[in-house]
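I am still getting used to backbone structure tokens and would like to learn alongside you. To get us started, please write out a protein record for me. Once you have written the record down, we can walk along the chain together.
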Amino acid sequence: METILKNSSYISILFMFFLMISCVDTSEYNQYKSIKNASWEANKKEFFEFDVSDTISPRNLFINIRNNKKYPFSNLYVIAELNFPDGKRIVDTLQYEMTDNSGNFLGKGVSEIKENKLFYKENKLFPISGTYVFSVRQAMRKNGEVNPIPFLEGISDVGFSIEKIE
């Protein structure tokens, strides 16, 4: 009986150790903006402001999208802009897959809402300290059309996150 108690206490301690290791948070910044009526308006930028003091450590940057079953497309085009404290800026047009080949939404979530963590920049070094502003807007168009879709249905939240690289 005593051996069983010793073994179970060792197992408990080992379990707690693994639980603590798995809970290491690498997130430095994580913010979401709700989209009114889950319908992202064309040319409406969502802004995220953050401060950087560490100019040595690389980070991963993500665009986070929550969509529901009303999202009508298998992909998503966005225009992302990163504004530096010194006035410089980087503008990227990005495309992300939102469904698999069978049309099932990608992302995490067991309800009708799926959360997608989409890489924006990998191993990004911020060259100067100060306040940065990231903005993102949808750039979806129907095939053969020039004008963007006025209201992109099915996008409930747009977010931006920065994670330390371990």
